[in-house]
């Protein structure tokens, strides 16, 4: 008997049994474990047989209708055969070939593809080769930079192509979306002239309707393989960095070896070294580019035309001075090839002294500082000169916009002018000038008297220097006191907190333009780095601006103006919130006294832009400076001689850079490099 299963609303199971040899049917009702509960009556059997007979009658009627149907006079027209690449008729055939890198192995690959398809087209009677489009060294994950591919699509739109041959789906595109989009575009851009693509490896012809699903699968696999390749490359890069096997590439001045080394190319190194030394010597990027173009110096790619950006890029690569940074940038989208600066997103490394540099790290650092100094490219790197004798001992010649300075550098250079005992004596005098240790001089004549701060008595005829966080400003009186000279030199003493300006010939590299050729005065000087060093030295609050009185000293028609930085007039921006000493000061309508150093505390109040204030300790302690202290302080400038004013100082090594050739040596080598080009 055949057994059938059924389910009732009682969740019991039914088993239908049909005798193999007799036309009888019996229904047995069983429970879940197979026990027969009851049997249905014969009427159920008869009802089933009736229904079965009706169904069979309908089936037989359908069979008779189909058998009796006559075609009559109708002509049956067969469908066109599915399109194939062997269809008869002339075809303009294009070949697309692509490799992702420019390695020698892949160069042979693309050549082999070209030769193979040339022969294949020649051997096919109805095929005519239109063009072989090849993208060498281009990724297939994006249409970007695939110029040959784009040109092929344009030619197809102009009906210049009937068929495109490609080795595989992955050569056509590794991006599933791009692949399917381009295939659909080729089919539909000219409905009467669809262009098909034949992928030989997968045996897929895109004009065949049955190819859609197969193409989608292979395109998806190519996309997946591209994603896997990206992950493998990231892992490989990680492993190589961790083992010190940094991926290196050729660059101007170097060629890489198989073991990851960099070998200097002497002829190209001439170009690189010239660029660094020219910047130090005062040439700007555009001038250097013009010189290299004039001498037809080749780039890494063989170009002889240079621009400022190319020169800047040469200077920015740490490999030129012997260091190596691995993985500066990372690709964040393997499809669009979008990259970003590696901010510890992935493993990176920086190795100092990885290989021999074309220039020293000191020369590279000096050149970068000169390039970063606004308005300083014309004269090149400034000298740091310190005076070792006379009344101006310890003063440093400063170019105010030069970025290669700092508070610590100034202090180190200044201290080179003194021995240990001189420094100790100088520090004691400084404390005395600042009001410390007054009890030690109370027995002196006039020691109980004070000299008022000169900054209280400013007027328009007095020279003034205003120091802000971005620069220096001199009033017109400074120009008049120095007899309208064309150039000046700025001197700074970080221990005595004094600034000096004096006349300069203009031939010195630290000369500052003081008066324009048309007679206009230079009032403001860009000096962000110099100002920052002063603010740090004196712990000034960066939101405040400070003005100082200048005192002129003249010897035999030779002049200087000096400014003592410990007697400030304090200026604040409009409605700027600053620290007040106490409530009594806040309500004063006469003079404002405010804390002006970073370590001062108090309550807040607002100072107007036109309002002047003074250090709060002047109100608390005294109105002026002890007479004896003032005389000690003024002694330095009172004994200054003409020889002191004219003293040029001695060039010293900049602690922020290190040892580099002097200016004459650099200019001499520049001439030699130009001669060798």
Structural class: alpha+beta
Radius of gyration: 45 Å
Total of DSSP H or I helical runs spanning 4+ residues:
19
Report the portion of residues in β strands: 15-25%
Total of domains? 4
Shape: elongated
How many runs of DSSP E, i.e. beta strands?
Answer: 33
Q: Kindly report the average pLDDT value.
A: 80
Helicity range: 25-40%
Report how far apart the termini are.
105 Å
> Largest sheet at a glance?
14 strands, mixed
Poorly predicted spans: 1-24, 438-444, 578-589
Describe the structure.
With 677 residues, the protein is of the alpha+beta class. It has 4 domains: 2-67, no CATH class; 91-226, Rossmann fold (3-Layer(aba) Sandwich); 254-372, Alpha-Beta Complex (Hect, E3 ligase catalytic domain fold), CATH 3.90.1750; 385-569 and 622-651, no CATH class. Helix content is 35%, strand content 22%. Strands 16, 17, 19, 20, 21, 22, 23, 24, 25, 26, 27, 29, 31 and 33 form a 14-stranded mixed sheet that branches. The chain has a 5-stranded mixed sheet with strand order 6-5-7-8-9, sandwiched between helices. Strands 1-2-3-4 form a 4-stranded antiparallel sheet, with helices on one face. α7 (266-281) crosses α19 (663-676), α8 crosses α9 and α12 (420-433) packs across α17. It is elongated and about 140 Å long. It starts with a strand and ends with a helix.
